[in-house]
Amino acid sequence: MTALAQRPEVPTTVSVDEPTPGELFSTWQRIRLILVLGTLIAVGPLTIDMYLPALPAISDDLQTTAAGVQLTLTGTLAGLAIGQLIIGPLSDVWGRRRPLLVGTGLHIIASLLCVIAPNIAVLGVLRIVQGLGAAAAAVIAMAVVRDLFSGLAFARILSRLLLVMGVAPVLAPTLGSAMLNWTHWRGVFAALAGLGLALIAVTVFGLPETLPPHRRRPATVTDTVRVYGMLLRDRTYIGLVLVSGFAMASLFAYVSGSSFVMQDQYGLDEQEFGIAFGAGAAGMITATQLNVRLLRRFAPQQILLAALISGSVAGLVLLGFAVTEVGGLTGILIPLWVVLATAGFALPNAPAVALAGHGEAAGTASALLGAMQFGIGALAAPVVGVLGTGSSAMATVILAGMLLAVLSLLTIARAHRLPAPGAQQAVLVAPPH
Description:
The protein is mostly helical. It has two domains: about 25-215, Up-down Bundle (Growth Hormone, Chain: A); about 220-420, Growth Hormone, Chain: A, CATH 1.20.1250.20. About 75% of the residues lie in helices and about 0% in strands. The protein has helices spanning about 1-5, 25-50, 55-60, 65-95, 95-115, 120-150, 150-180, 185-205, 220-235, 235-265, 270-295, 300-325, 330-355, 360-380, 380-385, 390-410, and strands at about 15, 425-430. It has a two-stranded antiparallel ribbon. Helix 4 runs parallel beside helix 6, helix 7 runs antiparallel to helix 11 (about 270-295) and helix 10 (about 235-265) packs parallel to helix 14 (about 360-380). The longest helix has about 30 residues, at about 235-265. It starts with a helix and ends in a 5-residue tail after the last strand.
């Protein structure tokens, strides 16, 4: 970004006209990279969601309450958020592969211990550790993309990866349900351990180191704090992080409230709810892939602003139908699907623009973005629960998320000051140490 390029501590800049390493990849190399990074991206959603169908069984087996079992989910989310803040800076110090392997190893150990967890307290602690390990995959995937690509190419690759991010949370509960037909709930955690082993194999054989030694940062707490301070002072970066977080909050509001709305309020059975939920996910996934084509004609920030405004309008229509109950279920589903589609356009482009000026600390910048995005998004679920289980509660939080995203883009990130399409941007290079 222009303001960042003026920082005195950064001595050199490189024009984005020079090809990034990923731009020299062949088509097959890009496909292989997307497959490898897609595997990394899927670890987090699978860790969170695969055991959801087993929650009642866990509650009965470990003799605890539903609230007690739900705390194990909260622990996983906390581990994922905290883990990103820790692993991101480490990946800027050690490179990408070593923290990924260590984090995955931690995920495997925690998963295996979950298999033999004797009570809900132990399971809750192990789920925190499991989340810490899974955070490595999410951070490293984003950092690797930023190591290899920038600008429009970054947004295109991220759109491809969001296909996995959209599919994994939808398929994970289904996979868990299928497993419970022939195994105990503890078998789900054994399967997650197996997933970790597969991830190690993918890393060892399919993911080269993308951060060369001369671009790594010194391994000091002071330097890590300095980098986080630099990021927190970057108004454009923070604004776009908030945009991502509030857009994710709208998505989490849908995920947490849709089952109550569609099943309890409108009487859909489990199969019908699955179809409606899947249709929304399909719309979001389609939008992420259409985004790749739009990036050939428009800048990411243009698509981002148009998507958020459209999402806000759809959210307002959704709230109107929810409050008045005009249109029944159809009046809820159509604007809801539009909101999900706009999120599919927003979620690839906000990180792409946010990370564009932080190639020198891609791991740390990706970690802070991921942690704040995930943390803000996760707050939506309890807010929906406090407001109630009806469609108006869900619609209120969805609309609030979209409006706050637009506000953050216009006032904090200052969309009008973002680089114009085709303008030359500076990619920051870490100073020698």
